[in-house]
Design goal:
Shape: elongated
Strand content: under 5%
Distance between the termini: 75 Å
Oligomer: single chain
Number of helices: 6
Order of helices and strands: HHHHHH
Structural class: mainly alpha
Helix content: over 70%
Length: about 200
């Protein structure tokens, strides 16, 4: 829909630019929530590279309809390179940010979800590249699969972030976990014992 020689290019480009800028804001906001850290910084930089590559492929190097005639112009070839770069940066950024989030107990599920998204994105990205290489008429649809997976990751993380409690970004020292578990178990046992004594006394 963003090809250089289609009549409906302008509104689709406007929507793409808006979504790309929103993704950048989301990544920066997530970085602010995570605080200073190497993983969060690397993850945000990768997502910003994804945004930059996406804007370049849509604005500076839009593809055309040459593939429909069995050949590829320079603009379309460069566009396809930026497609691959955007997909790789988006995948890597989501994975790194997922790992950074996984350091917090509240976000452990998001880390596992990020791994699952990466496991599905890698083969579908290769399929998209193969479709572009053979000038498949449906290569645009193949390209949308990794994009859709990235947007799904953003939706899940954003929803989780919107419902996060105040302690969502509180780290728990790993060495203290056994003590916390034992303490919690002892408290629950004492509460049950007290309840049984109160029932028997009644």
């Amino acid at each position: 829909p963003t090809a250089a020689d289609v009549s409906h290019r302008s509104p689709f480009v406007a929507m793409y630019v808006a979504s790309a800028l929103l993704l950048a804001v989301f990544a920066i906001g997530l970085r602010m929530a995570l605080g200073d850290g190497r993983l969060s910084t690397i993850g945000v930089v990768l997502v910003l590279f994804n945004v930059g590559a996406g804007l370049a492929m849509v604005i500076a190097f839009p593809m055309d309809q040459s593939h429909a005639h069995g050949h590829t112009t320079t603009a379309t070839a460069v566009h396809n390179v930026f497609v691959s770069a955007a997909a790789l940066c988006g995948l890597a950024g989501a994975s790194v940010l997922g790992r950074a989030l996984g350091r917090y107990l509240w976000w452990r599920g998001v880390w596992r979800f990020s791994v699952a998204i990466a496991a599905v994105t890698v083969p579908t990205a290769f399929l998209a590249v193969a479709a572009m290489a053979r000038l498949d008429p449906y290569m645009g649809l193949w390209e949308r699969v990794p994009i859709g997976l990235m947007l799904l990751w953003v939706l899940v993380v954003g929803t989780r972030l919107a419902t996060a409690p105040d302690t969502a970004f509180t780290r728990v020292d790993r060495t203290a976990l056994p003590v916390l578990v034992l303490t919690s178990t002892g408290v629950r046992a004492e509460q049950r014992s007290r309840h049984i004594r109160e029932v028997n006394a009644a």
